[in-house]
What does this fold into?
Amino acid sequence: MNQPAPFFLDCDTGIDDALALAYLLASPRADLVGIGTVSGNIDAAGGARNTLDLLQLAGYPDIPVAIGAHDPQEGTFHGGAPHVHGDNGIGGVELAPSDRGPVEVSAAELLVQLAHRFPGELRVVAIGPLTNIAEALRLEPQLTELVAEITIMGGAALAPGNITPVSEANIANDPEAAAEVLAADWNVTLVPLDVTMTNVLEENHRQELLASEHPVSQALGEMLGYYFGFYIDIFGRACSAMHDPLAAAIAVRGVEVATAPKVRVQVDTTTGPSRGQTVCDLRGQYLGFPDQRGARCRVVLEIGEKFAPHLLGTLQAAWLSEEQVAEPVT
Ligand code: RIB
Ligand code: CA
It folds into this structure.
């Protein structure tokens, strides 16, 4: 990936979504060409507002943002996760409101439009419930061929879930959509809790963001204060999982994956206690995961390097070079 590849981000912005967005803006390997929002951490309209405000703060006024599904395929939106992400989705941090609004089309329609504009090239990063992606598959049955690949933050392969003992939030919030997306015949990578809960951001990383001169890094540092408050009961110290930015970094090949077998994955859509579980067939682990017939989903279980330094380094490199352009040393 020498030239930046076109990326579509589908998100529920969200503190870790905000980090993923900043990472994709900063990465020299990604050209973010469109963003859709979906209800998850916050409702889809609120997620779009957060996204637009962040884009304005970061100096990207032209990337289209489309509001997507408010409700999952079955039932209604549950109201978000204010205990994790704050009432406004970004830890109560107040950003200057964006001068512009979302585009007229839905998130699914925007994804389909962009897939046609960049056939065989567009890469999708989905870091919220998969309602918009499933809708896009129904709108355009050729989407699986038009899109180069899709990377999804979601599920739990062998790790425990974070909503029920076995289900992860993005899948649990719309299991029917997730089942549809993971059954489609495309190049899909799943980044589950197995790898996102073992790659954390610590307080010294947060302090580094707060000390940055760039307003986006500072805002992210403030948001993380709220996020760390939720995770303290989980990890026993001030730190947080890095779900969404890790998925973004894997999608742009910013970090190497160490263990990522291609296996069969099914989503439980029953109404029993395993609803929303991503059932990953990892029986090949004792043989080093030989090819599995009919398998198309790469499940990332381990990465080959520490993630936090890469994340901070990418943000700093981008913001630093901008400062250098704006204020040349005399
Ligand atoms: O389970 C973690 C996922 O749920 C992340 O995408 C987070 O932002 C929430 O949407
Ligand atoms: Ca998310």
